[in-house]
Design brief:
Helix content is 36%, strand content 24%. The chain is of the alpha+beta class. The chain folds into three domains: 82 residues, no CATH class; 30 residues, no CATH class; 91 residues.
Length: 205
Amino acid sequence: MYALVELKLITKIFNNPKGFTLGDIQYSKDIFTKWSTEEKKAIGIYEIIFNDTNKKDETWYINTNQTFTFSNDTVTASYGTATAKAHADSLFTAKDKTDSLIPDDKSVGDVKVKGLKTILIKTLKQQVSGILNNTDWYITRKVEKTTAIPSAITTHRDLVRSRQATMETQITNANNTLALKTLYTYTTTNGVQSRPLGELPTLEI
């Protein structure tokens, strides 16, 4: 990305190289790749330096829009302070009803915006469903052909459901967004990576 600086003020941002007019002169997009840094600066074109110090993982945080500043002959794009996403659902209130903000199919106390806990548990359930689907055919075969389900399959499916219950409890009991993030953060001990939330069992036959 580039910025056009005129009289020490940023007047235009170029997300991609493209032609532009400055004063009475038409410049082609080629100047962005063919001109030297000093040649571009001579007409006020500066490559943007990105400062991601305040940028946080968007899984857990809402980042601000970038702010562009010109100082010390440099254009910098930086973020403000990120806001943690809500860990719990927000609900429709009586005030929402008064202000006519509740859809016809919703009522006071219904979920207004899903929090991270709801989203993460939904994702977990989808993962579990995918894992169990891989062995559902054993169940179908048992029903249709009365063929016994191997004990390893039954054990595996029980372990998956048990682990799911434990993981849902961990997510539900997290006090805030940081606690949720910690559950999903991998660390390495003695060369082994793990996370507090643990993993769903895998099938080995």
